[in-house]
Design a protein that fits this description.
By secondary structure, the protein is α+β, with helices and mostly antiparallel strands. The protein has a domain at 104-413: Glycosyltransferase (Alpha/alpha barrel). The chain has helices at residues 2-14, 26-38, 56-71, 75-84, 87-91, 122-128, 140-159, 196-213, 221-236, 264-267, 295-318, 330-352, 387-390, 398-407, 436-444, 455-467, 492-505, 527-533; strands at residues 93-100, 105-112, 120-121, 165-166, 180-182, 189-191, 251-253, 293-294, 353-356, 360-363, 366-367, 373-374, 415-418, 421-424, 433-434, 477-479, 482-487. A three-stranded antiparallel beta sheet has the order 3-4-6. The protein has a three-stranded antiparallel beta sheet with strand order 8-11-12. The two termini are 39 Å apart. Residues 1-40, 515-523 and 528-564 have low confidence and may be disordered.
Length: 565
């Protein structure tokens, strides 16, 4: 109790907020509680029978990667991988089998919450399951979980094409049900912020699943309808503001006192001039854009549209007749996707590669088509820093390298450096708050063949280890001078992204059929016996969300001169 009182005392003296009714910000209260709890509890995963979704293949990857780090003398990375890599499956996934087509066969449905918010974001859910996609090639349970997520995203988009986040059911309470959105949202939508990258995330999951498995069973009439709708929205959102002055295709108004939570000009957003780019009124942080054309999201659209075109072309070649519910042929959709990708890519280099007074030609974060450009970057993906991670260009590209130098400098208004670390943040949480996600992306996009020996990557890893503040997990953000001050202790996307970095550092492709796999790469079929031993019913547990919250204990702080990873 004395430690808790001391933590609150420090919060009062260092984080006084005169605008708060209590004089104390909620963030400082949260930090005080988190600091106290971190020192008392040990980081761990939920018990086996409380995990939302279990996979022996995932456990196999964990053991193999842990062994690699332990042999390198990096036990702290082994421990963090054990917690972060399975966090999405352990705590956020609900997978069920559902009857479809009048009960003639079984289908899959997968709902993935973000963590501490009981809703599914299209962007987050795709990225949360990304580390498990390599397993889908050989592991049927993982494959069905992913098919369920594609199916769920498909139904969501066919219901509310402009929404970014969704409820599990229409009967669920929604925090933003009073927002004024056009087109009007259904009761299934959690939030109606149109973000271009949300549509791209749907395409990314379908594209990557196909690349790994070559399975096209997801590409039914509903999926094709969703793809057609996505392409339609992208085309419509290329319009200039004056082209739809009387009847905008989309508008959003939220009543409140947070300017970046709503759109200007009666919900239309900032003025845009047609230039070939696609508008995105909101960023991947869910903040309103300053200028309407978000460049990283357009770059992501180029990549995913090109892949979609290839997927649709394969479907055209393999399918004698399209589904009876299709309104357009695979060939027509493929041509539209390819044409749109080419148009957007050309527009990026024409309108978004802009002269900076200090760094020369760099990619702007946002432009408006009138010649105005915003020089900044945000830690959320897609970002300018993540362009190689997205697949838009190589990390050695000269335009990217100049842009990267700008991003990781004090010329970027959202790059912060303090005694606890340095990295990119954003306006969503505020000034001085660094996002681990941005540091992971910095490491993943370093122009080096050997990540483990690169000094920049090593420095990023040490900051990331410290940023956990002993909880064993990544957070949304931490304050640049104190890792004990952090936001969102349960943020599954950040854990999955960190796991991607650790997989690369361990030299793993994330599959169970690599040379030297433990137990000769046992399959998920063995998991039922393990569950029976502990009284679990199936490979999927639907325990309550409250059972999945974990807070941890301090781990030794890594020094700046730690050995190579």
């Amino acid at each position: 109790m004395d430690k808790l009182k001391a933590a609150f005392s420090q919060a009062f003296t260092t984080s006084f907020n005169p605008k708060s009714p209590t004089g104390l910000s909620s963030d400082s209260i949260d930090s005080a509680l988190q600091s106290h709890m971190v020192s008392k509890l040990r980081p761990s995963r939920p018990p086996l029978d409380k995990r939302k979704f279990s996979s022996l293949a995932v456990e196999n990857v964990i053991e193999r990667v842990k062994r690699v780090f332990e042999e390198k003398g990096r036990s702290e990375l082994a421990d963090l991988f054990e917690l972060c890599y399975p966090n999405t499956l352990d705590t956020t996934v609900v997978h069920t089998e559902v009857e479809i087509e009048g009960g003639n066969r079984q289908g899959d449905d997968t709902f993935v919450i973000t963590g501490d918010i009981p809703a599914m974001w299209l962007r987050d859910s795709t990225n949360q399951v990304n580390p498990y996609l390599p397993l889908a090639k050989t592991q049927a349970p993982i494959r069905h979980m992913l098919l369920g997520l594609i199916a769920r995203q498909t139904r969501c988009l066919n219901t509310d094409i402009y929404a970014n986040a969704f409820k599990k059911s229409r009967h669920q309470w929604g925090e933003w049900d009073k927002d004024l959105v056009h087109p009007k949202l259904s009761s299934l939508a959690w939030e109606g912020k149109y973000e271009l990258d949300s549509l791209c995330a749907f395409l990314k999951l379908s594209n990557r699943y196909y690349e790994v498995t070559r399975d096209t069973s997801f590409a039914d009439g509903e999926w094709t309808t969703a793809v057609d709708a996505v392409l339609g929205v992208m085309r419509v959102q290329q319009r200039g503001t004056l082209e739809e002055l009387e009847e905008p295709a989309y508008s959003f108004v939220r009543v409140g006192n947070v300017p970046i939570d709503t759109l200007m000009l009666d919900g239309r957003g900032p003025p845009a001039k047609r230039c070939g780019l696609i508008k995105s009124p909101f960023r991947p942080s869910d903040d309103a854009s300053t200028y309407p054309f978000l460049v990283p999201a357009n770059a992501m659209a180029v990549v995913e549209l090109q892949k979609l075109s290839a997927l649709l072309t394969s479907l055209e070649a393999d399918s004698a007749t399209p589904s009876s519910s299709q309104t357009r042929s695979y060939k027509s959709l493929a041509e539209e996707a390819n044409s749109l990708a080419s148009e957007v890519k050309e527009a990026i280099y024409k309108h978004a590669l802009v002269e900076h007074p200090r760094f020369g030609k760099v990619f702007a974060y946002e432009v408006d088509g009138f010649g105005n450009a915003l020089f900044m970057d945000d830690a959320n993906i897609p970002s300018l820093l993540s362009l190689p991670y997205l697949g838009f260009l190589p990390a050695t590209d000269p335009d990217y390298l100049r842009t990267r130098t700008f991003i990781l400098s004090d010329s970027n208004p959202y790059y912060f450096s303090g005694s606890a670390g340095k990295g990119v943040g954003g306006p969503h949480v505020g000034l001085g708050w660094i996002w681990p996600m941005g540091i992971v992306v910095q490491a993943l996009t370093t122009a080096t063949e050997d990540l483990g020996s690169d000094p920049e990557v090593q420095a990023c890893v040490e900051i990331l280890v410290k940023s956990t503040a002993g909880t064993g997990f990544m957070h949304e953000s931490f304050f640049m001078d104190d890792v004990q001050k952090f936001t969102r202790p349960w943020f599954a996307w950040a854990n999955s992204l960190f796991a991607e970095l650790l997989l690369k550092l361990a030299g793993s492709d994330g599959t169970v059929d690599e040379p030297g796999s433990i137990n000769d790469a046992p399959t998920d079929a063995h998991l039922a016996a393990a569950h029976t031993a502990v009284g679990a019913a199936t490979t999927c547990s639907t325990a309550g969300e409250e059972d999945a919250k974990i807070v941890g204990e301090d781990v030794p702080e890594a020094g700046v001169d730690a050995p190579s990873v």
